[in-house]
Amino acid sequence: MKKIFVTGGAGFIGSNLCGFLLDKGHEVTAYDSLLLGRREFFKDFEENPRFRFVEADLLDREALSGEIKGHDLVFHMAANSDISRGAKHTDVDLKLGTIATYNVLETMRGGGVGEIVFASTSAVYGDELRVVPTPEDYGPLFPISFYGASKLACEALISAFCHNYGIRAWIFRFANIIGRNGTHGAAFDFVERLKKDPSVLRVLGDGRQAKPYLHVSDCIEGMWFGYERAVEHLNYFNLSVEGATSVRVIAETAIRESGLTGTRIEYTGGERGWAGDVPQVRLDGGKLAGLGWTASRSSDEAVKLGVKELVEQSATNWRTK
Ligand SMILES: NC(=O)c1ccc[n+]([C@@H]2O[C@H](COP(=O)([O-])OP(=O)(O)OC[C@H]3O[C@@H](n4cnc5c(N)ncnc54)[C@H](O)[C@@H]3O)[C@@H](O)[C@H]2O)c1
Q1: What CA–CA distance (Å, rounded) separates 174 from 227?
Q2: Is the CB of 8 under 6 A from ligand 1?
Q3: Which of 29, 209, 254, 319: CA 20 to 30 A from 74?
């Protein structure tokens, strides 16, 4: 049994991860400010004696250093997950991404915590790439969003802490993740908007933006597999699936899974959903596949299941506190 510290533990991926780690028999501390996460995501395991929740901010270094020490491993999942917010407020990703990650690493060093698994993103690669699907050794890396820039800075900080202080790291550059407890992203927005107005669905861009979608269960299995098998000091992987799903298909799936017919889809036009959005993403998952892991579902299958789960969860009105 390991003592595992999950930052962003009340968020979409973090809450699913806490359940997974508890099922594996580990002791789990979820650390989250509840800025974007939700306490009700703990309902399936909050009574578990191996689970503990700390409501605090990663920017509060004193609180963090008191809580992180004594753990064996950190899953650092916390960040500003709303990419478009970074374009409006240019210091959001700097604070919630880069500085928060520095605080995690510095308190790990101070508290003698030796291992970190980090949630990075395909957004570090940037746009109009020369190699598609894009492998991990692609470069130079020039992200086009503040979110991607922050994640790349986090990767660099992790590398420096690994080199100087012997910390071991597993960096995973995620595709788009979808599933239960989702709180943001195209599928989530569509499901919520259809609930308010089933007659018309407004979609940003021309609907042809296409990205690989990974179900959250595959994301977590993939991270755990990589953590257990990859033996370098600093390990880094794309965590993805072959192919991609277009925004148009996600919109149609959301309409169908919501049990609607006759909804009009209105595209705002343009190849990009918003400034900083990378409209076409394809990731090469060959490095993790080389160790023996591939996703259990295709991108389209992940979207179908993820949208179904979001519709079911939305129907329970879980969002009204
Ligand atoms: N969901 C995706 O498609 C996707 C894709 C690529 C990368 N990622 C990365 O995976 C990680 C998890 O994403 P998610 O989709 O679960 O997002 P999420 O917003 O659901 O979860 C992030 C959690 O971090 C918490 N948090 C943010 N700032 C904090 C702070 N300063 N102190 C304490 N807690 C803080 C939020 O309250 C939230 O609960 C993030 O790092 C995200 O950038 C997600």
Answers
A1: 15
A2: yes
A3: 319
